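Pasting as-is:
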Amino acid sequence: MNDVIALVLGSFILALAVEHYNIHKRLALNITLVFCGDPLNPPLLLLGICGTAAFVSMWMHNVATAVMMMPVATGILRRFPTGPNQSVVVGKFCRAVVLGVLYSITIGGMSTLTGTGVNLILVGMWQSYFPEAAPVTFSTWFLFAFPSALLMFLALWALLCCLYCPRSSGQALSVYFDKAHLKEELEMLGPMAYAEKMVLALFSMLIVLWMTRSITEDIPGWGVLFKGLAGDGTVSVMIATLLFIVPSKKQKGEKLMDWDKCKKLPWNIILLLGAGLAIADGVRSSGLADILSESLDFLEAVPYLAMTPAVCLISSTITELITSNNATATLIVPLLIQIAKTTHVHPLLLMIPGGIGAQFAFLLPTATPSNTVGFATGHIEIQDMIKIGLPLKIAGIAVLSLLMPTLGVYVFRTGEQFQ
């Protein structure tokens, strides 16, 4: 039970509050309304839907985001005919929307520590193996991962527009798509209530506190007031606690959250994270990491610039088969730490490509639970996933190979001597 577990526990409680008050649905409808265009512009609409999914995924776990956002996406697609009456243009746009939401959720989750369990496992292992080293904070991770995710998101959007969503499709789709329906759905939600505003305010406060706890050496952030005893998990739990204190003003004595609303808390993921950290510690302390690292000793002969793409390729290949990017990270990161020690390379230069590469599970519906959620809609087939997933995986490896030796060196100070 460390800071990483506290971080994800508080974040999940906040995510449940967002879901309970339909804030995610209001956000999706508003953004879709803005990006709809008049006349309908399919690439712009696709950008709005995917952008919403990516943004929500930045602050919630990927699986929770997929469960919430996929019904929003398929709700938009219900305007179109199904079965034999569906035209080729409509069918392609439906596939583009589902694939876009699916992969945007994965890409968005990479950009923040709380977006996915892999990032938390990675940071937890860094703290466990190198307790004396400077911790990877929410803000330092964001400074590196957000530009990486943004480049991948743009690559995804370009791929979908080229293969499934040409600009000329606007006229065919506008027959079924109308802004009036979106406005009706938004009106059904009614004006934003006090409870929704308070959840959004606490959500915004959490992000600000995460980003300002540790800024730079010259501007240390508010964390210095507590002499290093307050972590990102401290803030997460504090905001979650406030949800149980602030009144909702719906009924007398009712708070924004209570334990009944927390029944859907995914303890399995929290336990999985804890287990991953415990297994990693066991792999290290038992000497198993030394033995296993011998199977990857060929990486020692790989040139420095080729190391990132090699590690990323291995990690992203394993993750397609194991069905859990958390399990892949738990397996591969301790080995990469051992290889970094033997090759005298800064550990983060291998750990980060290995951890982020474990999230490039784009090819198979069984590769991650969120892929399964998208595949279950019936709008996409395995060949669609491979058609977009393979070039997206290549783009992801290229982005990491470019940014890790450049931006990564600056953000994580990997150019400095490391003991």
